[in-house]
Write a structure and sequence with these properties.
Blueprint (H helix, E strand, L loop, with lengths): L2 H5 L2 H7 L7 H18 L8 H9 L4 H6 L2 E4 L2 E4 L5 H6 L8 H13 L9 H15 L2 E2 L2 E11 L6 E3 L1 H7 L3 H8 L4 E7 L1
Helix pairs in contact: 3-7, 3-8
Length: 193
């Protein structure tokens, strides 16, 4: 079970995302702080070269695999097979719909972080915060690692959201991105700089 599924509980999420909490900026702060806390729990080490990192990932031992579960690496692109937050997200659905304030939180995040708007729901915010933290804390071949979210697709496969920054850095067309994210949960890039 990926670390995200273990650590983000319905009890915690219900408190942080309670509909009576009116300060959306405080909710965003709590979501990102939880991401930072979880990132500290992941054992992170440097890799001598990209091949060693890719081998660790393929064998389920990379920090990303431990965090979120199985993903396919295609060069420096990671295609996450299943959203580790889907069960938790579905537990908040009533009559097939998420609470309205979930959209408010997500839209406010997109407003504040304009180039990182590739999020579908509040739990994406936690998840992507963790990924960024992991990238900030290890090296591959002595180079810093940066993570760029490119796109997420909802579980029904009929809505894709894009991150302006990730799309730009990937240098892929929307059609190429759509093809790579289709049948997956999201697409992100691992870049050594």
């Amino acid at each position: 079970m990926p670390l995200l599924e273990k650590r983000i509980t319905k009890d915690w999420a219900g408190k942080v995302l309670h509909p009576d909490r009116k300060m959306i900026s405080a909710i965003l702060f709590d979501l990102m702080e939880m991401g930072k806390e979880i990132a500290k729990e992941i054992k992170i080490r440097d890799y001598e070269n990209l091949e060693i990192f890719l081998d660790e990932h393929k064998n389920g031992r990379s920090p990303f695999h431990l965090l979120e579960g199985e993903s396919h690496l295609d060069g420096n692109l990671a295609q996450l097979k299943k959203c580790p937050m889907l069960s938790l997200l579905n537990s908040f659905r009533a009559e097939g719909k998420l609470p309205e304030h979930f959209d408010e939180v997500t839209e406010k995040y997109k407003y504040y972080y304009k180039k990182k708007e590739g999020v579908l729901h509040p739990f994406c915010i936690v998840h992507q915060t963790i990924r960024a933290q992991i990238g900030d804390h290890f090296r591959i071949d002595g180079k810093k690692v940066q993570i760029y979210q490119i796109a997420c697709i909802n579980s029904a496969g009929d809505r894709i959201v894009y991150s302006t920054e990730g799309v730009s850095r990937s240098r892929m067309s929307r059609e190429e991105i759509d093809k790579k994210v289709s049948g997956n949960a999201c697409l992100y890039m691992i870049k050594c700089v």
